[in-house]
Each structure stands twice: as structure tokens, then as C-alpha cells.
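Late entry, evening session. Most of the bench is empty. Finally got around to the prediction I had been postponing all week. Sequence below, unchanged from the version circulated by S.P.
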Amino acid sequence: MALRKGKCTNFGNCMNADRGEVVAAPDGQEFVCPQCGRQLNPVEEKKAPSSTPIAILLIVLLLIGAGSWYFLRHRSKGGGEAAPVTSSSGAPAVTSSGAEVILRLHGSNTIGAQLAPALAQAYLRQQGAQDVKTIPGAADEVSVQGTISGSPKAIEIAAHGSATAFTDLAAGKCDIGMASRQIKPGETASLSSLGDMTSPASEHVLGLDGVTVIVNRANPVSTLSNSQLGGIFSGEISDWSKVGGGSHPFKIYARDDKSGTFDTFKSLVLGGRTLVSSAVRIEDSRQLADKVASDPDAIGFVGLPYVDGTKPLAISEKGARALLPTRLTVATEDYPLSRRLYLYTASNSSNPNVRRFVEFALGKQGQDVVGDSGFVAQNVKTENVSAPAGSPAEYSKLTAGAQRLSLNFRFRTGSSDLDNKALVDLDRVVSFISDLRYSGSDVLLFGFADSTGSDAVNDKLSKDRARTVADQFEQRGLKAGLVTGFGSHNPVASNDTEEGREKNRRVEIWVKQKPGA
């Protein structure tokens, strides 16, 4: 029987794809991967070698020689010469100072204001650059420049809002899109020529942030519910006295429409409601925080690094306890308004600096920069925490004396597959466990479900989720000591919304404390 051969491209979700396996399917049968069901890419059979014309052989040898010369001529200390970005005319793009532009990052102001320039500087230094500096340009634009092998190189950063990440990627104006929200379906469709922008090859979680609701430090209010926030920012609640403050009308500050921070806030807080027309709209987070710090009746929202001079509020959701945006509550994404910061790239960019930069940013050195910039890095840490009030007795017993790791594993929407962040976190955890010489028996995995369905169903789902994570660990040589689930107990968000239910579908990871710790 004749066979057709192909390779799966469902990277990050299929072992056949990750291993580059060639899969054979008999003629007449569906040409799909037997593991994940995705359509296979055909692989041509290698034919027996025949006599090659001398002219073709000479051309091949010349091309190999030219390629070798180019590599030797242009290699750099960082593992490869920083290739220039070309302009519309085909010539290398340059800055006003004559530096070759090797990488362009456009999009989120939250990322682009401080974090992206800091990452760009660290990346250039890692590539062997000297005399690295940030040069201001137009509003919310900078150029980070350094000299590599005697040649000036630059990384261009334009931070005009998350929406511009996707429009500029589509127009070929940038190499990496920065977004403080996840890409929308319409944007995914518009960028289909660059690959599946929701796949692990294109969607990269850079770090974590908490959309922080801030007030003036003199304000007596310390906690608000998500419902109260929605009423305040939509204009349904007009006075501080309605939520425990003085008898003064609210002065509302909000980010502009291009902002990913506003998109996140609108989705998680406003829902279908409209922002009150009297709100003062501000593009820059630092300016917004300054306004709130100087106005006793003010309320606004910014990313976690921009709260200086203001008072952050604890936020609660129906059925869940109020939480402040701390390093732990944001890292685990338990805080109701936590969010992910993203880098989006073409799945197979022709610019080698795209892959190098993303790998650097997601690695330990890049994540240290994320943390130093005020956001929450994804480097794994242990935290001493207690079981929340109302926890199941078994959960309280098992976590007593144990430490919680600073992450949760979550799943793709409507799927039992781990999401893109979790796929990277698996290797981070394995490295962390190995570095500290914990054994697999020290690892505890606890799954949770939302409240949809019966207790028995939710209990099974929670255990299945924990087992999914445990299976992934076993593939990496780590066998967890305990794998169980606690159904819909300990919700971290409201089960009345899809966003809340997604947060509640999670797996926590704990480790038994080492002796003497």
C-alpha cells in the first residue's frame, strides 16, 4: 500500500511536531497527525542520487563559499551579527544618527515606556555592544543604540498603544508587537500571513502585571468590589459616599482607547457598559498616576509599576476574597485584574534578531529586567503562604509547612491543553526544582475547577487538570509526589463570568519545605 509522509506543525501542543517526526499515512486515509489531528505538511521523498552536472555543482560550491565568508565576516560576540532591518527601498533602515536599525518594537505604552528600552539595552550588551544608550525621539518613541564590532546598531521602540502592535505588524512597520492584552480574533485574522498568532511560535508572555486601581493617599477607601468599580467608571455611582468615602463626586481618570490597559479594564470591569463621558483620558501611565496623586477625589487605573505616590485598592469579586495586587497575587494571576504582557512575532521571521530577542527576554536574564522594571517576572520563586479561610481540611493539612511556587498552570480557553505561558513555565519549574535539589517527591500538584456542574464532575475535572500537568512533568523527568484536586473550592474569581471561571480552572504547585528552610 502506498504511503504519504508528512510532518505536523502544531508546535508546543504535539510531541510529533516538537520532535520533527515524519508521519506516514496510507493513501485513502485522512492526511492528519495521529496524535493531535492537525493536517500534515507533505514531505517529499528523497530520490536516489543521479549524476549532477558540473556547472550546477560549481554554483553550489560558490554559494557555500559565499555563505561561509559572510558568516565569518559578520559574526559577533553575541552569537551572530545583528542583521539590519531594510527600508521600503530595500536599503538598510538607519536612525538619524546613522545607526543601522536591527529590530523594531511597536505597541503598548505600558511595556514601551520603561521595560522595552531596558530590555533593548540589556540585549545589545548581551550581543557584545559597547556604549549602549537610549536616545529620545518623538513622543513615546526612543532609539536604543550601541556599537557592535565597530558598527553602530539600533533598536527602534514606538509605544503608542497595544492596538498599534497589530496594525504595524500587518503593515510591516515592526518586527515585534508589544501588547498589554491578548490579541483579538479580528487581529489574528488580519495577521494570518505571518502564521497563527495564538500559537507558541508567535505569542510570547513577556511578564505579568496587575491593572491597579489607584486613589489619592488621603482617601479612606481601601477595598472595592468589581461591581462597584464598574458602577463608578460607568457613571452609575457618582459619589464617594456610596462606597465608604466622603461626600464628594468622583474625578475619574482613564487610559486612552489605544491602550491595552484600558482594553483589559474594559473587559474585566466595564463589561458591556461604557466609560463615563466625564473621564479624563490620558495616554501615559505616569501622567495618569501624577494626576491621581494630586487630586483627593481622583480614581484611576494603571499598570503595577506606576502606583508610586498613590494608594492601590484591594479588589474583590463575587464569591472570592479581596486581594491587593502584590508580587504573589499577580504572579499566580489570582488578583482579579491581573494580566499578561505579550510579545507577538511572525512565526518564522526572516530577521534573526527577533528569535534572539524573544529568547533573551523570556530567559532568566531578561526576566530579571522585567522584575527590575516594576513588573512581575516569571522566574520561579517559593512563597510562604497560608491556606485561605474556608479551605478544605485536607488542603489546609497538605499545605501546612509547604511553600507555594509563584505561578499557576492554566489552560487554553475551552480546552484541556495547557496555554502558551504554562508550556514555558513547565521547563522553568523543572529547572528551579533541579537547581534547589528538591526531588519529585517534594512536589505537590493541586487542581481546581469552576463551579459549573456537579461536585463530582468538578472534583474529577480538577484532578484531571492536575494529572495533565503531572504528565508533562514526567516527560521532563520529574515525577510529582502528590497529584490531586479540590473541585470548585478556593475560587480566586467570580464564577458568574467566563473570565472568572477561566481563572478558577487552574493547577497550583507547592513544594515541601527543605529541612532547615
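Two things to note before I forget:
Residues 380-512 form a domain with the 60s Ribosomal Protein L30; Chain: A; fold (CATH 3.30.1330.60).
The two ends are 63 Å apart (CA to CA).
Will write this up properly tomorrow.
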